[in-house]
Design goal:
Layout: H1 22-33, E1 38-41, H2 43-49, E2 57-61, H3 65-75, E3 80-81, E4 89-94, E5 97-103, E6 105-108, E7 117-120, H4 124-129, E8 139-142, E9 146-148, H5 153-158, E10 161-162, H6 168-174, H7 177-188, E11 192-193, H8 195-204, H9 213-224, H10 229-238, H11 242-245, H12 265-279, H13 286-294, H14 299-302, E12 304-306, E13 309-311, H15 315-329, H16 334-346, H17 359-369, H18 373-382, H19 389-413, H20 424-431, H21 437-453, H22 458-470
Parallel strand pairs: 2-5, 10-11
Antiparallel strand pairs: 1-2, 1-8, 3-4, 4-5, 6-7, 8-9, 12-13
Helix pairs in contact: 7-9, 7-10, 10-12, 12-13, 12-18, 13-16, 13-18, 15-16, 17-19
Length: 493
């Protein structure tokens, strides 16, 4: 067959024909009828060898993209996408199976360029040689189901080792994002990065600057949602690459004053991240993990050395804005930016609980946390990294007590849906005013009453609103509704 590999050797390992989906065999048959070989490649092969069965199938072929398109149109009529055809990729879906077929290719980045230069290749080994890591540079020839492993990926997978097919300098020159991807695989697949790869990342990490923020965000997110992000983030900080996408993280390694020492903020941050992961109940939580990583990000800017010791006053306020700026720069969606920022801003609120909180303070805590209440409580618990068992037990007991009070108030007052007794329409009708800032001030006043006293009912809320309105400058010129007499009827002139 045209394009069959010449120097690729079959690995000593094997793969059972039973693990290859029938759709892959069928598609290979369609390519064979057209005179082209087809190979399963990339992450599917890696995961299948590890005992998993990824849902999507990635293929490589020497067929030009136009030929692949023709074959896929016959194989999956009406379910073909050509979004990536410029780069040699055609996608299709047949039943529940989604496939991507890519023409053998290589790609590289020129200095200063954000876009790769793609060139098509004619043989499989060249295609595999330009892939990121050896564990992803294996292929399965179809329909014979022959494992092809020219760069020792199977052995590396068995040894839990991450190497590049060619030298790491060449691989990272082809695509600088691969440096961050190495860290991602170390976190998600629990692979040990080869020392030569680590050295290349340390020497070349500034090349990451040419990669788009969106691509960096995707890799960083996968890294953070992995099995062991803390160890990987520590390595990333030690070798310098963390400074390319989260420059605030290395700054947490504050130089210790010989007299006024304080907790190692960097080590504490990674410990908080580990604690948060251990407390997750429904799988990886991106917002919680980001908040754990960023919760003390404002400490370097707020550190002051005083005669009494080291302080970080208002680091939660500064840190919240720094968090917003960094996550925005990484092009995270506004919802994630706002939620993580709010958790960073609120993470110290609980520390005043030991001084005694009224029901009003509990209501405010719940109101300000909103839908993030669960994540906020988890972050607060995670923030306890003291080695003093007594202090740890005291903090845990206080949080248990607060959560119990929240449940009691919620049962009485619908606490998790805090809102004023009246809505904007009722305020406008009662006061006889049009929409505008005054309505917002009136609702804010009613919310203060709700927080201070709990539920007061609509009738009492209107009486309070009347008293508030009477104290507003120029209220008699703004068309207020007539006040009610004590017995509920209109006052006589």
């Amino acid at each position: 067959m045209e394009g069959a590999p010449q120097s690729v050797q079959q690995s000593r390992g094997g793969i059972s024909r039973r693990v290859v989906p029938a759709a892959a065999i069928e598609l290979a048959g369609a390519f064979a009828e057209a005179g082209w070989p087809l190979y399963l490649v990339g992450g599917w092969v890696r995961d299948a060898l590890g005992g998993n069965s990824p849902p999507d199938l990635d293929f490589a072929t020497p067929a030009p993209p136009e030929r692949s398109l023709e074959i896929l149109k016959r194989w999956a009529p009406g379910k073909v996408w050509t979004t990536g055809i410029e780069f040699g990729t055609v996608a299709a879906q047949r039943g529940n199976v989604r496939v991507e077929v890519t023409t053998f290719r290589t790609e590289r980045y020129d200095m200063g360029s954000r876009n790769p230069i793609v060139s098509f290749a004619t043989d499989l080994e060249t295609d595999l040689s330009r892939r990121d890591f050896t564990v992803n540079a294996m292929a399965i020839a179809l329909p014979d189901v022959e494992l092809l492993d020219p760069f020792g990926g199977l052995d590396d997978l068995a040894q839990r080792r991450l190497r590049t097919p060619l030298s790491p300098e060449v691989s990272f020159g082809d695509d600088p994002l691969r440096m961050l991807r190495a860290l991602r695989f170390a976190s998600t697949l629990d692979l040990r990065i080869d020392p030569e790869v680590v050295a290349a990342i340390a020497a070349m990490h500034d090349r990451l600057q040419i990669v788009s923020a969106e691509r960096i965000r995707e890799e960083f997110t996968k890294l953070l949602l992995g099995r062991s992000p803390s160890a990987v983030l520590q390595l990333a900080t030690e070798i310098g690459i963390a400074g390319e996408f989260i420059p605030e993280l290395p700054l947490l390694r504050l130089e210790q004053d010989p007299i006024h020492r304080h907790k190692d903020v960097f080590a504490h941050t990674l410990a908080v991240l580990d604690n948060a992961i251990a407390l997750e109940e429904s799988g990886p939580d991106l917002v919680l993990r980001l908040a754990a990583l960023f919760h003390d990000i404002g400490k370097p800017r707020t550190r002051e050395i005083t005669p009494e010791g080291v302080t970080f006053h208002h680091h939660e306020v500064v840190g919240a804005e720094m968090t917003r700026a960094r996550l925005t720069a990484l092009r995270y969606p506004a919802r994630i930016v706002n939620e993580v920022r709010q958790l960073v801003y609120l993470h110290l609120r609980f520390h005043s609980y030991r001084l005694g909180w009224t029901d009003r303070a509990v209501r405010r805590y719940v109101r300000d946390a909103g839908a993030l209440l669960g994540e906020l409580n988890t972050l607060v618990r995670s923030d306890c990294t003291t080695r003093n068992p007594r202090k740890a037990a005291e903090l845990s007991a206080r949080m248990d007590e607060l959560e119990a009070r929240i449940r009691e108030l919620a049962a009485r007052e619908e606490l998790l849906a805090l809102r004023p007794a009246l809505d904007g329409r009722q305020v406008m009708e009662h006061l006889g005013i049009p929409p505008g800032p005054t309505v917002g001030r009136a609702l804010a006043h009613l919310m203060e009453i709700r927080l201070d006293e709990g539920e007061v009912g609509e009738e009492e809320a209107m009486r309070r609103l009347d008293r508030w309105w009477a104290d507003q400058p120029g209220a008699d010129q703004q068309g207020a509704a007539p006040a009610e007499a004590p017995d509920g009827g209109p006052e006589e002139a």
